[in-house]
Amino acid sequence: MKKTTILLLSIVIGLCAIGVSFALDVNVDINNIDEREKKQGKSIYRAECRQCHKADSEVGAPNLSPDSKVMAHWQEAFTDYSDLECAKEWEKKSEEDLRLIFLYLYSGASDSPTPAKCL
Ligand code: HEC
Q1: Among 54, 84, 105, which is best to mutate for testing ligand 1, by the most ligand atoms less than 8 A from CB?
Q2: What digits encode the pLDDT tens for the residues 28-55?
Q3: Torsion angle of the four alpha carbons 50, 53, 55, 61, in this order, in degrees rounded to the nearest 10
Q4: Which residues line ligand 1 (CB under 6 A)?
């Protein structure tokens, strides 16, 4: 095969891979999270997730705050959420919203510099 053909093929294959996978970058520097994005993530979380993930949830969801998990667990959940019982709720969100929710939860994880409760 010609070099250009190989190059083109790799680009096509690469684009397909990006298209089918959930490509949220969870390797974020914990000491360098944008405060504004964190706040945005918090309000999205409170509006879209918290109605189920609160104390005494009627749907049996655990009461989830940023400090309910360690950083690595949030990274895991946001790398592949397909096994979660509420994956359908996640699918309704844009990738940008999920990124902001991730920043909020991750930055307040129990082993982060600033553990946070969702009150
Ligand atoms: C309609 C209600 C509902 C909504 C909305 C919802 N969830 Fe869930 N979620 C659940 C239920 C029910 C479970 C399963 C609980 C279990 O397995 O015991 C769950 C499980 C989870 C888990 C795994 C449980 C754990 O402790 O590790 C995570 C993480 C999670 N949800 C995060 C989210 C996030 C982030 C959002 C917002 C994008 C969200 N959920 C929106 C109902 C919901």
Answers
A1: 84
A2: 999 999 999 999 999 999 999 999 999 9
A3: 160
A4: 48-49, 51-53, 59-62, 64, 77, 84-86, 89-90, 93, 101
